Amino acid sequence: MMQRLKLEILWLLTTLVLAILILLPIYNNAIAFPYYVFNVVSIFILVTFTRYIFLLQYSYLFQAKWPKAIWFFLCIPIFIYLLDGLTSFQEFADEVGVRSFFTHLSFEKEKGLGTYTKNEFVFFSIGAIIVTIILPIRLLIATWRDINKRN
């Protein structure tokens, strides 16, 4: 169990470094980007839930019933939060424009960073929404296998 906990901490640190590297161009160039928290949450959820879907046997959730049940039901509010954040960002991008965060830069850099920001945000948000739908199914299958192994 201690080995799995160390592996989990290592994965969380790796995910944190990945999130920092992905958001660094936006952080260095944007004037006031209000979607940092949502973006970091989306990256964390996408990477972590994808890892749980494919590598569940190496996580702390492998033989734990209650944490699986908690994550199963937590996916509902997470899904709603992700959908709300993506809708809010899309509404802002359609009405104001993502390039409005980079107006102090040259046109080429503004255009490039605007495209990067929108593509990155939509990619991680939609990916996080998809894995939030798939993870409860995977947890249900894993729990079903545990119950059938014991009987």
Give me some keywords for this one.
151 residues; mainly alpha; 4 helices
How would you characterize the overall build of this protein?
The structure is a single chain. The chain is mostly helical. The chain has one domain (2-150). 81% of the residues lie in helices and 0% in strands. The protein is built from four helices and no strands. Helix 1 (2-29) runs antiparallel to helix 2, helix 2 packs parallel to helix 4 (107-150) and helix 3 (65-95) packs antiparallel against helix 4. The longest helix has 44 residues, at 107-150. It is elongated, with a radius of gyration of 18 Å.
| Whole-number total of structural domains | 1
Number of separate strands: 0
Summarize the amount of helix as a percent range.
Answer: over 70%
Total helical elements? 4
- SSE string, helix = H, strand = E? HHHH
- Strand portion: under 5%
Shape: elongated
Poorly predicted tracts of residues? none
Largest sheet at a glance?
Answer: none
What is the alpha-carbon Rg in Å? 18 Å
Termini distance? 24 Å
Q: What oligomeric state do the depicted chains represent?
A: single chain
Q: Which structural category do the helix and sheet elements fall into? A: mainly alpha
**What value does the average pLDDT take?**
91
